[in-house]
Amino acid sequence: MFQALLNALGSRNTTTEDAAYDDSLEEQPDDDIVRVTTRNVRRRDPSPEEEARRPTQWVAWRISHAHKHRCREWVAARFPDCTLEQNAKDALLFSASDAAAVVAALAKDEHAARHVHACAAHGGSTARLEDVPGLAEAAYDAAAATAARLRVRGAPGLKEALLKNLPERIQLTPRGASHELVVDAVPATHATYYYVGCAPLAETFVPSTGDAGDVCRAVHKLREAMVRFALPPFRRVVDVGAAPGGWSQVCLEHGAELVVAVDPADLDADVAARVVHVKKRLEDAETLAALREAGGRFDAVLCDANAHPAKMGRALHALRPYLAAGATLVLTLKQPSASTKTAAADTGEVEGALAAGGFRDLRTAWLWANGRKERTLAATYT
Questions:
Q1: Closest Cα partner for 275 from 255, 295, 296, 249?
Q2: Which domain CATH number covers 259?
Q3: Quick check: 7 pLDDT over 70?
């Protein structure tokens, strides 16, 4: 079976049949994160010089295209010695001096881990499919594994071939394993490389999941922003565009004494029972009257409203009489129709509007929890 797989994935010359096969790729179901096809299969073996320059440890990330930029930022900020080696469909491959440390750091970062499908450390690599069983056996032995759970990513059919061709002494089982043996296939320009690693189950990456008690996914944006910008605790909060109540929920979790939630739409029932809900828009007179009745002196204004960021930046000026000096602003910049080129201009416009309204120390970040055309801004009112 393994020889049949070699024949299917091995080197071959481009033919009319290949061209037809490539043209039909758009119609195939996207059932694998990275497909090994005639478009990216090995055309030639790397030269000895190329092999000599290759590192000895790697970290393979399985991640959506929308989060690749944030992944590269995350790695660069924490592990400056890492180098991006390959950028494939829904996959990034970094060389690292300590691959296991990268995986361990990711596992501890709940905000990043929530958006990463898989991440594994590897100590072996080859562009020759026939060498994969030997690397898998060597990784198993080096890790002193007694039984391993096998995971193969990006190479359809390879898992079945390994199960049939690895020696019987290599115990592979889906349950009761001590280790995880991982093979990641990552296509490069001239070859598909196979990365092999084996680690104790306690050291493997497990994607983070949401809390069942969360009102909505928006809670992750504020939780991440509080860590990313090192924000102080909020005591008295105005939450603009609050529905269904995710950001209000986070404020209450962190000990807020008063939350005034401004939104014409309904809030989650549990949240609504614990906040002052003003079912009006920010610009309505009733909203400002409610803020006066609450005593003003708010130390935080939050806004995740679905509105153009520059418009919202100007609208927030109405809140200035009710903010305490040093109050924190957290604003989601939503740019649903902005291109990459115009997004920077839109951000500059809202920053200008906020600066004119007395907000300083403006900081903008593309959080893991942000959408593809969202950014989060934090500022301080003076």
A1: 249
A2: 3.40.50.150
A3: no
Give a yes or no: residue 317 inside a domain: yes
Mean pLDDT value across residues 9-30: 37
User: Contacts from 94-102 at CB under 8 Å and sequence distance 24+?
Assistant: 94/58, 94/59, 94/61, 95/54, 95/55, 95/57, 95/58, 96/55, 96/57, 96/58, 96/59, 96/121, 97/57, 98/57, 99/57, 99/58, 99/59, 99/123, 99/197, 100/199, 100/203, 102/59, 102/75, 102/78
For 101-119, the pLDDT digits (tens) are 999 999 999 999 999 999 9
Give the angle subtended at the CA of 17 by the CAs of 13 and 20, to the nearest 5°: 120
376 closest CA partner among 221, 217, 215, 232? 221
Please give the residue range of the domain that contains residue 11: 2-203
The stretch 57-86 carries a mean pLDDT of: 95
**Is the whole model's pTM more than 0.70, yes or no?**
yes
Q: What pLDDT is stored for residue 41 in this prediction?
A: 44
